[in-house]
Design brief:
By secondary structure, the protein is α/β, with parallel strands linked by helices. The termini are far apart. Helix content is 42%, strand content 14%. It is globular, with a radius of gyration of 20 Å. The strands form three sheets. It has a seven-stranded mixed β-sheet, with helices on both faces. Strands 9-12-11 form a three-stranded antiparallel β-sheet. It has a two-stranded parallel ribbon with strand order 1-10. It has helices at 3-6, 11-24, 43-53, 68-82, 88-91, 98-104, 125-132, 152-158, 181-194, 217-220, 234-237, 252-263, 271-283, 288-293, 296-309, 333-344, 370-383, and strands at residues 30-31, 92-95, 115-120, 136-141, 163-168, 197-201, 228-233, 246-250, 322-326, 346-347, 349-350, 361-365. The model has no long low-confidence stretch (mean pLDDT 96). The protein has two domains: 3-40 and 293-383, Aspartate Aminotransferase, domain 1, CATH 3.90.1150.10; 44-288, Type I PLP-dependent aspartate aminotransferase-like (Major domain) (Aspartate Aminotransferase, domain 2), CATH 3.40.640. Bound molecules: D-malate. D-malate (MLT) binds at residues 34-36, 99, 173. D-malate (MLT) is lined by residues 34-36, 99, 173.
Length: 384
Amino acid sequence: MGRLDKLPPYLFSAIDAAKEKARAAGVSVVDLGVGDPDRPTPGALVEVMARAVADPAFHCYPAQRGDAGLKQAIALWLAERHGVQVDPASQVLVLVGSKEGLGHLPLTCVEEGDNVLVPDLGYPVYGQSTILAGGEPRTFSLNAEMGFLPDLDELARLMDDRTRLMFLNYPNNPTGAVAGQAFWKQVVELCRERNVILVNDAAYLEVTLDGSRPASLLRTADPLADRVIELHSLSKMFNMTGWRIAFAAGHPDVVGDLARVKESIDSGVFSAIQATAAHALGESFTGLLDEVMSAYPERRKVMVDALTTAGFEVFDSAATFYVWCRVPGDEMSVDFCSRALEEIGVVVTPGPGFGSGGEGWFRISLTASDEDVAEGARRIGAWR
Ligand code: MLT
């Protein structure tokens, strides 16, 4: 079987198709599916971008690994916000969105016959990029009993001398689970012993609803000694999903290998966007990040109150803008979510879209307007 034949359909493409079909049939759809912030990019950033776009200095190819100003801003931001020291020249790489970095990482180290540990529950790209690189995704389970953290013994059992990478994602999509410093310490040690590159997809590190600062992989590991890489994204931090701007930071060899792969594939991010990203990171210290995140706590409360009043079981979390909820009874997740669209016009994501471990669960995204979240909560609550 060819690599493309091994790829399952992309989760959100299938959901988009179902949504469009329902709209065409006249259903008034409340879309709580994909995690794409409804609010616009903050006006101050749009103004910086407008000025940058008009500046011919930004019209040429960007630097291949990222513009020096942005890499400097990233290093400063990591130091001040997370207490992480990295050399901007050798340990930071600008990405065309973190999905791009996740998609290309296996190409740095996976050969035919190698395997990569991927979470089941997880963002589909981890397994799909492994397949595209010719490797075998080996799944480890995340379940509610363990707070959606992996069992370290299972990880150790799954690793062999062909294991090249392990993907983790905390704070976690789709569950909202958060990993603490003690967990990171143990998993870093395991990967060090087994010579496995450890990746944390940190796209939701700043998406907290209670102002907390979850531990990060980079904060725990020694990114000069440990073969680790963490991918951060401005998409959810600053409502910039469409801009495609993110960065990787970590061990110089791992970051350098990813840069080499990218040199053969893309030519970097438009420098005007990079200049805006540098500005945004600076502004995060003066309240911009808090302002963006202030959209979510009330939405979560409205949704969770409606769900629990209606008897749904919700995974308790103050991180990410997702609500992870059990499907009532023994109905399959996909059937439940299809019925939700057909009967009450609400789009939610079936848990198995993130792996077989998601059976019996569904995900609600809080990235719709306050009115739509309230309406979705009302419809789901009244439906049960
Ligand atoms: C999601 O809904 O899981 C994410 O928004 C998808 C993405 O970040 O590409």
